[in-house]
Amino acid sequence: MLGVTAVTESCAVVVEIGGFPIRLRCADRDFVRQIEERYAGFLSSSNDASFDFEIELASKDTQSADDDLRVAWDSGRWLLERGDFRSEWNPSTARGRIQQTINPYSLDSVLRIVHTLLLARKGGFLLHASSAIRNGRAFLFSGVSGAGKTTMARLAPPDTALLTDEISYVTREGSSYLAVGTPFFGELAQPGENLRAPIEALYFLAKGPKNKIEPIEGTAAVRGLLGNILFFARDPEFVKLIFDTACEFANHVPVRRLTFVPDASVWELIV
Amino acid sequence: MKNSMYVARSTAIAARALGDETMVMSVTNSTLFTLNEIASVIWAAADGVTPLDQIVADKICTEYEITPEAALKDAESLVEDLAEHGILLVSDQPLAGPANSRGVTP
After folding, report:
1. pLDDT of B30-82, one tens digit each?
2. Local structure of A10: helix, strand or coil
3. Contacts of residue B32 in chain A, CB cutoff 8 Å?
4. Does A147 lie in the same domain as A246?
5. pLDDT digits (tens, 9 = 90+) for A115-156
6. CA distance to partner chain B, nearest, from residue A243 (Å)
């Protein structure tokens, strides 16, 4: 069990990612300041929030972020649990509670999961991908660890706006898909810009002897997508939602393989 | 005489036709299957009430150059494989079919 400190008077901050303003309350002002620093650029000054989470800080003891994650739907609420946090969230009341260690990255994990749940019902998703906006259009670069997501972000020319080097945020508006900036970062250790743009293409990365782009179609595109979409809830209904979402995305957005030499010349192809 | 085999798509799946292929995902363990063109034809026709030999005769042998015996043998191997993975139901009696007649999201 997590040892939880007593909550007295909370202070709050609203973090807005992808158009979902989430109010985070915590009695520990120092931790709220950490949240403000961590999510600078994604803070909302509005008092209106779609969701409200009370954070209770546990003492630093043996809680580990390496423990297995469990996300389950139970009696009208989502339960999110890992060694370093335990959260309950009731979508119908839009309220939730997070018990976690004093570590902003535990909160990061909770927020990522909550956003995957929010996006799933709207045809969107989080994807293991870096993304950037160039000439008003967004480009996504996906792949397993080491494929080159952060490399593509590092090599991006000055006329690009980086949305993330690690976790891309994809939303659907009608038949269009948009990429949205997130504070979720990887090796680059730099939050993305809080911008959005229509997605021009999704590239699956591979390093090779020369720069080359090839189309990926049909089942191969969907298989690649499903291998890189973040979904934590193994609830059958959610699995179906994610499957349909991947199929729809591949039906509307060009999916390609980008084999590249890791130098700035690769961006000459991304126009 | 060999009994007829009836096949029906499991309801614990999500499926989508993509070109000539069909992608099927088990919602119980998230395993993905890609069915080729001929397997997709059998999948789409697996309504639980049409015998497999009739599906093969009507949908496969009329479209592809293959003998009925060879086609049926391949079809039986396929459905047994899919049944082992729990995405297709096989019976020697008619089965109630799923709601969607093609078994794929439109």
Report:
1. 999 999 999 999 999 999 999 999 999 999 999 999 999 999 999 999 999 99
2. coil
3. 223, 226
4. yes
5. 999 999 999 999 999 999 999 999 999 998 899 999 999 999
6. 7
Domain count, chain A: 2
Domain-located, residue A258: yes
Q: Are residues A166 and A240 in the same domain?
A: yes
**Which residues from A are below 8 Å from B14, CB to CB?**
239-240, 243-244
Closest alpha carbon within chain B to A243? B14
What percentage of chain A has pLDDT greater than the value 70? Answer: 94
- Sheet of A77-82, strand order: A43-44, A11-17, A20-26, A51-57, A95-100, A85-90, A77-82, A70-74
> Is the CB of A252 inside 8 Å of chain B's CB atoms?
no
Residue B12: closest C-alpha in chain A: A236
Selected for mutation to probe chain A from B10, B16, B20, B29 (highest A CB count within 10 Å) is B16
Residue A17: pLDDT band (50, 70, 90) is very high
Three-state secondary structure string covering A177-201: EEEECCCCCCCCCCCCCCCEEEEEE
| Buried-state track B16-46, b at ≥16 Cβ within 10 A, e below 16 | bbbeebbbbbbbeeeeebbbeebbbbbbbbb
* Annotated domain spans of chain B: 6-89
Among candidates A226, A244, A250 on the partner chain, residue whose Cβ is nearest the Cβ of B32: A226
| Residues A17 and A79 both lie in one domain | yes
- Interface predicted TM-score (ipTM) of this complex, two decimals: 0.84
Q: Does domain B6-89 have CATH number 3.30.450.150?
A: no
Query: Which residues of chain B lie closer than 8 angstroms to A226, CB-CB?
Result: 25, 32
In a domain, A4, yes or no: no
Q: What is the pLDDT of residues A18-72, one digit of tens each?
A: 999 999 999 999 999 999 999 999 999 877 888 999 999 987 655 666 778 999 9
Q: Among residues 30-59 of chain B, which lie with CB inside 8 Å of chain A?
A: 30, 32, 34
